[in-house]
Amino acid sequence: MRISFPRILAPAMSPAAACAAEALMLPLIALALGYWIKPDDPLFVHDDFPWMWIAPLLIALRYGPLWGMGSAGVLLAGWFAHASVSGEQTLPKLYFLGGLIFTMIAGEFSSVWQARLRRSESIQNYLDHRLDALTRTHYLLRLSHESLEQDLLARPVSMRDALVGLRELVAGIEVGSHDQLPAADKLLKLAVQFCQIERAALVPMLQDGQPDITHAAFLGAEFPLDMNAPLIRHALESGLLSHVANQDADNREDSCYLIVAPVRDTARQIHALFLVDTLPFLALQDENLQMLNLMLGYYADSLALAPLVNPLLARWPDCPSPFALELQRLHRMQCEAGVHSTLIAMIFPQQGLPGGLPGALQRQQRALDVTWLVRNSDGTKEARALLSILPLATSTAVEGYLARIDRWTGKQYGQDLGSLGVRIRTWELNEAAPAELLNLAMESCDDATQADPADATV
Q1: How far apart are CA 42 and CA 20, in angstroms?
Q2: Which letter does DSSP use for residue 12 in this model?
Q3: 278 CB-side CA count, 13 A
Q4: Per residue in 38-77, pLDDT tens?
Q5: Strand, helix or coil at 211?
Q6: What CA–CA distance (Å, rounded) separates 31 from 36?
Q7: CATH code for the domain defined by 157-305
Q8: Residues 184, 273: contact at Cβ < 8 Å?
Q9: What's the pLDDT score for residue 156?
């Protein structure tokens, strides 16, 4: 087995028991070697270099200053044990003081870089999820347009409309629902309409990763389910869609299914298995399989994200699901990893606002930003505020963002946001829980709506 030397020096997160064992054993091994090499001075106190302090140094670099100090305590205990045997009375204070300072500096260095690494990993994971979602959306849009061009007369409902309906249906499921696969019948009907599937089954997965065939949903006539089929094993191992023409699947010709697709979200969690038993011969082609895979991924994302967005959507039904999801995600990221993000509210006056300004401001957002154009509930449907979530944005980034918007409004309307009567409020995403933070933003919108537009300030 190949051993990675960097992994030995900088291992992944270890349990406290493993850290304690290493902090104890490594200096004990060093002491044993010292007794073997130099019995009269096992700690090398009188040598030119304090070789024994390499053990606490390694522990401090791996796990931080506290574990390094604990390892240094083992060396101190070793010296007292040696002094009781040899009769030495004078404690080498400078030897131990220098070693402790050496260990503490190394431990602080380790702590700083571990914190930076956690921040970088959190940012990278967030960007990976956003890229994955954007890629799916891109391919979904392309396939939807091609499907509309080819089958507009035969399919009066577009792919986008069908998936929007599916998302709304799943988002309406209350948190804590015992239904493992909500809207499963809707998903099966979409498979018939867009993927030409004639007979299939949707098998939910239990918490332990095993299929639950007793609660399977069927499309068409029911058929026996064999969870030991080669394609099922290949799909579960790879986490990808498998079919009888897949060259990577072993014994695919012995499978009783034509297609096995995991219903997997962006976090790689498999919620169900989609088993296709009957399919027209010409329907087994790349575009059809890609469309099925995207539909299942969209459905899985809806299942995974519903518990996050439902509490906010229940309180504010007009709030877009992507906005609610991003607010929950970034709030958790800022609390856990200290990655700063900001919520900005641009509150519009009820009179004197140039026509089309709210929509134009919404189109000026950055690629990563997520927005909600809040409208009045009095029947006029006029925009009263624009809420924008700025991911990974510090106070400096927020100032630059607002300055850019001011320059744009100055070019387009000859005035900045303050002169147009637009009020600005900002919140760090760790200031309050998402529901409380959104409530503060909505209260600010209500207060500004009731105020005199002439008193609006930025």
Answers
A1: 23
A2: S
A3: 10
A4: 777 777 777 777 888 878 888 888 887 888 888 887 887 7
A5: strand
A6: 9
A7: 3.30.450.40
A8: no
A9: 45
Judge contact between 199 and 208, C-beta under 8 A: no
Strands (E), 253-319: 259-264, 270-278
Per residue, the 3-state secondary structure of 124-182, as one string, reads HHHHHHHHHHHHHHHHHHHHHHHHHHHHCCCCCCCHHHHHHHHHHHHHCCCCCCCCCCC
**Where in the chain do CATH 3.30.450.40 domains reside?**
157-305
* Position 386 confidence tier, pLDDT thresholds 50, 70, 90: very high
438: burial class by Cβ within 10 Å (0-12, 13-18, 19+)?
buried
Between 82 and 142, where is the model more confident?
Answer: 142
Residue 108: both structure tokens together: 């602080």
Question: Residue 372 has which token pair?
Answer: 């909600």
Q: Six-digit token pair at 279? A: 């399919």
Strands (E), 184-250: 199-204, 217-219, 242-243
Distance CA 45, CA 52 (A): 9
For residue 402, what are the contacts with CB-CB under 8 A and spacing of at least 6?
Answer: 344, 417, 424
Number of other CB atoms surrounding residue 183 within 10 Å:
22
User: b/e string for 128-144 if b means 16 or more Cβ within 10 A?
Assistant: eebeebeebeeebeebb
Write down the pLDDT at residue 418: 87
Q: What phi and psi values does residue 202 have, to the nearest 5 degrees?
A: -115, 110
Q: Where in the chain is the domain with CATH 3.30.70.2880?
A: 316-455
In the predicted structure, residue 157 carries a pLDDT above the cut 50: no
Q: What's the pLDDT tens digit per position in 315-366?
A: 888 888 888 888 887 887 777 667 788 999 999 887 878 878 888 888 888 8
- Domain 316-455: which topology? Alpha-Beta Plaits (3.30.70)
